Amino acid sequence: MVTINLRTKSPKAKISRLPSTLELDTSGTVKDLTQAISKATHLGPERIRLTLIDNTLLVSGTPLEKYDLQDNSIVYVKDLGFQIGWQTVFYAEYGGPILLHLIFYYCQSAIYGRTFEHTATQKATFYMVMLHFAKRELETAFVHRFSNGTMPLFNLFKNSAHYWFLSGVSLGYFVYKPNSVPDLPNYLFYGLIGLWIYAEVSNFITHLIVASLRPRGSRVRKIPFGYGFTYVSFPNYFFESLGWLAVTLFTRSWAALLFFIVGSGTMLVWSLKKHAQYKREFGDKYPRNRKAMIPFVI
Ligand SMILES: NC(=O)c1ccc[n+]([C@@H]2O[C@H](COP(=O)([O-])OP(=O)(O)OC[C@H]3O[C@@H](n4cnc5c(N)ncnc54)[C@H](OP(=O)(O)O)[C@@H]3O)[C@@H](O)[C@H]2O)c1
Description:
This protein is α+β, with helices and mostly antiparallel strands. It has 2 domains: 2-81, Roll (Ubiquitin-like (UB roll)), CATH 3.10.20.90; 84-285, no CATH class. Helices cover 53% and strands 9% of the residues. The chain has a 4-stranded mixed beta sheet, covered by helices on one side. A two-stranded antiparallel sheet has the order 5-6. The longest helix is centred in the last third of the chain and has 29 residues, at 254-282. It is elongated and about 75 Å long. The model has no long low-confidence stretch (mean pLDDT 95). The protein binds NADP nicotinamide-adenine-dinucleotide phosphate. The site of NADP nicotinamide-adenine-dinucleotide phosphate has 20 residues, from α6, α7 and α8.
């Protein structure tokens, strides 16, 4: 048995009823510690995040011995707030653009005040967007294996706002409006569709590789190898960006450009953070020459 100190990182994040110390049997797992804190604070265990002084995350189910907790060790406790199932968040965030593109594409007179024949560029963009988000919905249902069953409720609004406004309302409104851009010459028209298909299929392959690392129901993390992982830690982000770059060039729309920039910027920041985490987690075993997201660059 050891006596650990429980703290919150800042007075603002104070948790009422959080005991300052806790007697802990270190032969148990992180889940036991979370449950003890849950009992004392009356917060659901899914809301509780535990870290050590060096920011190491205490992963649920992991034996406590792994974290070498001693008498007076400090464990930081964070209340993540109300939680919601991650699949619900994903279904909602990707469902929005599907619905909005259907509206902008099929309700011309209500939105643009008249009906007109869509150009080949508009038709192809519609199918690309539909297929992209249908793929994301299907991956949510059948491919991804997230380690956390839930996310903070706020993510539902934050993530949905990103997709609903940037890839839904603004992209849909401007791409399907009358007199939008002229169609590209055939070699560019089909060349960019080809690039988009390559990016989507590659993104799907990388998602399959990552999902294959984790037995269903577990939280196992391994080093991914093969396909784009030879060059970067997050080829899934790279291919996702490449797909939106193809859409941006295809539509020549500032709305597509904005979504491409914001989405790629976000993924780049995430990839740098997660790349550093891979190196911390796997040390010398992690392939040295791998970049974070863009092969040979960053
Ligand atoms: N267009 C945009 O604005 C935009 C922005 C972001 C993402 N996206 C799309 O959404 C996709 C998913 O994004 P994400 O941030 O969730 O991707 P991610 O961090 O690569 O994770 C994808 C899935 O793989 C799991 N995973 C990751 N690394 C693993 C490892 N080493 N071992 C075992 N499992 C591992 C993750 O579980 P954990 O729960 O353990 O992380 C998660 O279930 C992206 O690939 C991209 O296509 C689009």
